[in-house]
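#data-curation
PF: Archiving a pair of folding outputs for the training set. Convention for this channel: one message per protein, sequence first, structure tokens after, nothing in between. First:
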Amino acid sequence: MTESASSTPGLREQRMRRTRLALCHRARQLTIERGLSGFTVDELCTDVGVSRRTFFNYFPTKEDAVIGHDADGIDEAALAAFTRGDDDAPTLLDALAELAIATVAAWDDEFDAIDPHAIIDREPQLLPRMIGAGQQLEQRVIAAIEAREHLEPGDPLARTAASVIGALVGRVGHQYFADADTSPVDFATMLRNSVAETRAACAPASAPRP
């Protein structure tokens, strides 16, 4: 097999991923601007430059495009590296933060960030589905933590770590979007600082309280 032929599946997956992300990104933009009823699948496809058939290969409805594809919820290469422990993060929480940063960066490299709160403000009925997507993502992270730390399935450490990083990412993300026009600090710096503050808050006290 030639080098070109062996690399073709990877290139095809990259194209598919970019198309999914483009459809999702534009669907979110249009939802914030006009609401779900304010645009059609045809308009979305025209904006992205794909056919209706291509759209329905990825998403059954506009709502699904706004929620996003399961395969794009986390950076797969970063997740695999995290699971193997291919990092020098001082703690599990730091490693989870770097996984979140890599996932956000994979989007931001190609598309402007969109505040999910703005989507919910415009279409509140999407909240349960977005929560459901978040829960599915959390289960994947929990499984990766269990594999990385050699834990038994259901070990509370994995669920606790996933919940903590999820809460930190949510809080930092909300602050990041709220201050995007005025703050020079990027998402990665904000999340790393938040993790450091959390570690400090959880450290043993230097002396017993009276």
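PF: Second:
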Amino acid sequence: MSLRADTPAPPSARVHRFSRAERWVHRTTAALMGVCVATAAVLYIPQLAVMVGRRELVVRIHECAGLALPVPVLLGLASRAFRADLRFLNRFGPHDRLWLRAALVRDKRRSSRPAGKFNAGQKVYAAWIAGATLVMLGTGLLMWFTHLAPLVWRTSATFVHDWLALTIGVVLAGHIGMALGDPEARRGLRTGRVSREWAEQEHPLWRP
């Protein structure tokens, strides 16, 4: 009999997916990203700016959270499990191309979406958000330390920073929406373990 998605599997039917270090990297990064998005909204939406006030404090919180954003990942590199998963995320194989092709044509058959420990969508998201974070950090530094570059560079940095922030907000909303639709994936990030049935269905090429 199959297990319901919202019913935890018994311990004997669960497999290890994420280490404690990996879970803390994800949680801390998510918290810092949430602070960045929330403070950015306060800074750029007039109604929120009026409601919250204390713009200078909000700016400082936004800057500190942005500077701290890469720190959890850098600390996570001390974990062997985290480094191993980064290698998985950085490898794109033939099965990933099949997964993306199926996603583009909205083919939801499990057989058409082969995946290892991470599917192609997760790999693309991880690469994109990592690159976007670095761009946001670089443009943010140009905006913060005005003596680092001429005015035209700072103006361009502001334009890129603002529009990329909006794009990140949209992508994060999609990421959260996908997570809300998969209770077992969320359980894996919370406890480090997932049901064997879920692993076989969603990540058939993964050998835990």
